[in-house]
Amino acid sequence: xxxxxxxxxxxxxxxxxxxxxxxxxxxxxxxxxxxxxxxxxxxxxxxxxxxxxxxxxxxxxxxxxxxxxxxxxxxxxxxxxxxxxxxxxxxxxxxxxxxxxxxxxxxxxxxxxxxxxxxxxxxxxxxxxxxxxxxxxxxxxxxxxxxxxxxxxxxxxxxxxxxxxxxxxxxxxxxxxxxxxxxxxxxxxxxxxxxxxxxxxxxx
Length: 204
Prior knowledge:
Layout: H1 2-5, H2 8-29, H3 34-58, H4 64-88, H5 90-95, H6 97-118, H7 127-146, H8 151-173, H9 184-191
Helix pairs in contact: 2-3, 2-4, 3-4, 3-7, 6-8, 7-8, 8-9
């Protein structure tokens, strides 16, 4: 039984690929009650993202490989949700295209800087980025249900802007690639060779 529990985090991670694909397919097919179904699936996807790390840390199997896999599939999952939401609410995306392009470019820049410097993808999992995911989650749910977001979208944009810049700063500060760096202050400590504290629940 213990042997099989070791696979739970990876199963949760890969389940997001399936969930993201289903949301995208349902949007493309314009199924009945899509908004409600999409919100339920999106919520389940977010819960798998929360619990895969918690379970992995509890089982002491939170390896670099697992964290890198988690980050990559997170990107694919949210990209699927974004595309699906665009299919349903194109006018919202067109009306906010400049801000969305800025965020997507910064996200891409973070990955480019990390790959050029370390030949690895981003897996910082900073605390501020976790906050942004929750705000982004709320924003996308509102868009799914109403094709509008207003204040939530603006909040999501500015938090996303700050957190993307923080990730780039973390990458530039690190001498060697590292996963689960809580913030830019911790990157400075790592650069100086000092130990850092990671929260067991979020970055342990």
